[in-house]
Structures are given as C-alpha cells and as structure tokens.
Amino acid sequence: MVSLVILNRKIIKKNLWMAFISSYMVPIKNVS
Length: 32
What we know:
Layout: H1 2-31
C-alpha cells in the first residue's frame, strides 16, 4: 500500500515536471 503511494507521488512529480517543461518550451518555439 505504501509503495503505491510512493509510486503515485513519483508519477505526479514527473507529470508536473513534463507539464512545466512543455509550457515553458511552447512560447520559445512560437517566438523563434
């Protein structure tokens, strides 16, 4: 049960990181 919580936290962190990167990269592509 604990391992599932840790796994979910890792997935959430990864998804937030990917969303942050994508939202940061899109404006750069539009400018250049």
